[in-house]
Amino acid sequence: MFVAAAIGLLVRMLIAANTSGPADVRFFQGFAKAVTVYGPVRIYEHPLPGLPVYNHPPLAGWMLLGLNEIAELGIPFGTLIRSPASIADFFCTLIVFEIVRRRRSLRTAVGCGIGVALSPVLIATSGYHGNTDAVAIAFALAAAYLLTDRRSPLSAGVAAALSISVKFIPVVVIPALFVVALRAGRPMFVRFTAGFTALVALVWGPVLVTVPKNLNENVLEYTGGAYRLWGLVRFADVLGLPEPFIAFLRGEGHFLFVLICVLVGVWLAWVRPGQLPGVVAVTMGLLLLLSTASGLQYLTWAAAAMFVIGFWEGVAYSCLLGWTAVLGYQGRSPVRWSETALQLGTAGWFLLAICLVRGIRRILADPPDGPPPSPAEPTSVTAPRTSHPFGSAVN
Fold first, then answer.
1. 193-206 burial by CB neighbour count: b if 16+ within 10 A, else e?
2. DSSP run (H or E) holding 167
3. For residues 338 and 331, is the Cβ–Cβ distance under 8 A?
4. What angle in degrees, to the nearest 10, is found between the helix axes of 23-42 and 186-210?
5. Distance CA 3, CA 6 (A)
6. Helix (H, G, I), strand (E, B), or coil: what is residue 336?
7. Quick check: helix, strand or coil at residue 69?
8. What are the CA-CA distances from residue 306 to residues 49, 128, 177, 210, 281 (Å)?
9. Distance between terminal CA atoms of the chain?
10. What angle do CA 375, 378, 382 make, to 5 degrees?
11. pTM over 0.85
């Protein structure tokens, strides 16, 4: 599996080194220069002429500061900015393999791991686009794996905090993580909370103390661009629904969809705590399904997650939405999709909905009778065996 992950990383880095990438590469370079002037904390309170809103959590600023220093050594910034996402996919390949290995056959786990490594969606978004979505997803899945499968609550708490510190989108899975930690007992909950709180205080604390209003406006309340290329907003636009309704979807309404994602994740985590990696996968996929913003890099949210749900779900999603991403990046602009890309995106939306239904059904089909055993651990001859893609839950 390490070889597959390494091949996937090599492919991504070759793309990053030999292409200029979309406008986001230039924007990130502008952000990096601004961070060197204003610092990772004060950047939120300064206008950045010629650049979009700096809507990235505090850890991203420190990352940009480091990448800018490395660029001074002569390495092109365009290659560097796509390295974190590409490296994150490398580790995500290994994480998904380990998650599936504990719940299904080794053959299925290998297939899912290779699927993540060679996913057209992830290759396009990480190797070419280079935003930080893949990094956040890798940390979110790592947190679920560490908490449920490795029984390492302190490390899981740190990973959970890192996930929302580089990109805020995994915030929808944080309540589910806390629910599982709570159900696992007081020691697990305390250690998970300690790891999460310590990292949040370290990374977010200086910004919350210094520029809380600017952080809230730029990051916490950010609703995405105004493009209508994906999902509910696109459907509302195509159906000719009133502009006030579409404005509501994109404004206050999007908080309702976020709440739905949180509630679904919390409910699944409560009834099937041992299936936490699958719960995280479903929650992130649901967030993409209900997203009122559009961006090709957002397709990353569900790419690795679909392989946690199932091999064929992952393959179907990666191929169909990968085709969408490739067409989108080959067009005039990633935010101006061709008619073919729009149609593929629509088909991908419905495919995602089907995969999520299948994922929820599989989670609920597993009995909450204990943690998934490690493949290295002997299993009692009286223990029931399961063919489901997720393991059994923790009491």
1. bebbeebbeebbee
2. none
3. yes
4. 90
5. 5
6. strand
7. helix
8. 39, 21, 19, 39, 7
9. 31
10. 115
11. yes
Least confident segment among 66-70, 113-117, 192-196, 330-334: 330-334
pLDDT at residue 371 is higher than 50:
no
Question: What is the rounded CA–CA span in Å between residue 301 and residue 340?
Answer: 22
What pLDDT is recorded for position 221?
81
* Helical packing angle, 231-238 and 243-250, nearest 10°: 180
> Which pLDDT score, from 0 to 100, does residue 391 have?
39
**pLDDT for 377 beyond 60:** no
Note the helical H segments in 81-185.
83-101, 106-117, 120-122, 133-144, 153-166, 174-183
Residue 151 Cα to chain centre, angstroms: 22
Tokens of 203: 């990374």
Mean pLDDT of the chain: 90
Spatial distance between the Cα atoms of 393 and 39, rounded to a whole number of angstroms: 44
Tokens of 306: 């679909």
What is the Cα–Cα distance from 75 to 65, expressed in whole angstroms? 14
Do 380 and 91 contact (CB within 8 A), yes or no? no
What pLDDT is stored for residue 379 in this prediction? 44
- 107, with CB counted inside 10 A (0-12, 13-18, 19+), is exposed
- When pLDDT is averaged across residues 126-133 and rounded to a whole number, the result is 92
